[in-house]
Amino acid sequence: MSEERVVFSVIAPIYNEIESINEFYNRIRLVLEQLQQPWELILVDDGSVDGSTERILALAEEDERVLPVIFARNFGHQIAVTAGLDASSGDAVVIIDSDLQDPPEVIPDLIARWREGYEVVYAVRSEREGESWFKLITAGLFYRLITRMTEVDIPLDTGDFRLLDREVVDVMGTMRERYRFLRGMTSWVGFRQAGVSYKRAARFAGSTKYPFKKMVRLALNAVTGFSFVPLQMITYGGVIVTVISVLLWLVDLLLVLGVQGIPEILQPGLIGLFFLGGVQLISIGILGEYIGRLYDEARGRPLYIVRKNKTQIEHNEE
Ligand code: UDP
Ligand code: MG
Predict the structure, then answer these.
(1) Counting atoms of ligand 1 from 1, which one is nearest the CA of 12?
(2) Quick check: CB of 160 below 6 Å from ligand 1?
(3) Which of 5, 224, 231, 277 is the most interior residue, by most CB within 10 Å?
(4) Is 10 close to ligand 1, i.e. is its CB under 6 Å away?
(5) 306, exposed or middle or buried, with CB in 10 Å at 0-12, 13-18, 19+?
(6) Are 53 and 17 in the same domain?
(7) pLDDT in tens, 188-245
């Protein structure tokens, strides 16, 4: 292993994790200090309201390697990680959850592969501890759906816990889309990629900040961001519906010709009406998902708003 001087950045998004922050910081520090290289820990506060913000600022005060980025409100996990990437300056940048589900002790394994020459080293969950069966099933379905529907090769059972080379971080910095799916983006850029498997732990404290609604939103961003399959499905659906309606028309013809015994509820005209109505609404909804995102991207608002960061804090102190 060559021992040239490199700088490591670790990015952790934090949304109401007051009970975990200190433990997280201690474990990260222990791991990073063993590497005997300079490092920085970027703590992105994603609009916490439980005192996490003050705790982050206190840590930054004690340890100058801790860089706080305090958001003006909750912008969401993917955006928080993006802000961390923007603020980072390391040669290798690690993205990790702050609830200790991603064990900091895995970081040296990621770094080892990076030193072998891989620019993206992602951590694959070989096991998950302390998750509800609902989370396990929906997460499993999610990963498989994304793989099926998107054109980029996104590794299965892989979250955002990963190491990115500076080069990759710089390329990602030029990708300013609002509806982000970082896993897709880091696969899309290419480079040499490798996986390291690890056992995903239970949360250190608190409960998930990814309720079902946020999971659905992330899945929608993943699909719309990397695939046109839903739009193509509308076309296929249209073809199928047209064929069915021709068949129904034939049944209708039988009715008109006086064939008895077809119950009223099964009258083709009525079924056809409901069916077509449903298909059309779904199709318009899918179009809407894409158009809404297009509109939002067109507005070109900043991805996030920082209320406080290190330079601003230093300014206030002067
Ligand atoms: N998080 C965030 N903003 C959010 C939701 C979550 O910064 O709006 C952070 C959270 O503090 C944690 C990480 O993102 O460090 C992953 O969230 P969580 O553990 O709730 O997700 P899960 O592991 O249950 O999928
Ligand atoms: Mg978690």
Answers:
(1) 15
(2) no
(3) 224
(4) no
(5) middle
(6) yes
(7) 999 999 999 998 888 888 888 888 888 888 888 888 888 888 888 888 888 888 888 7
**Of the candidates 4, 189, 13, the residue with the CA atom closest to the CA atom of residue 87:** 13
Q: What is the pLDDT of residues 154-191, one digit of tens each?
A: 888 888 999 999 999 999 999 999 889 998 899 899 99
76 in any annotated domain: yes
Flag whether 81 is in a domain.
Answer: yes
Does 47 contact ligand 1 (Cβ within 6 A)?
no
Return the sign of the alpha-carbon dihedral for residues 35, 201, 208, 178. positive
Which pTM was predicted?
Answer: 0.80
Q: How far is the CA of 210 from the centre of ligand 1 (A)?
A: 6
Return the best residue to mutate from 14, 70, 143, 209 for the ligand 1 pocket (most ligand atoms within 8 A of CB).
209
Around ion ligand 2, which residues have CB less than 5 A away? Answer: 99, 101
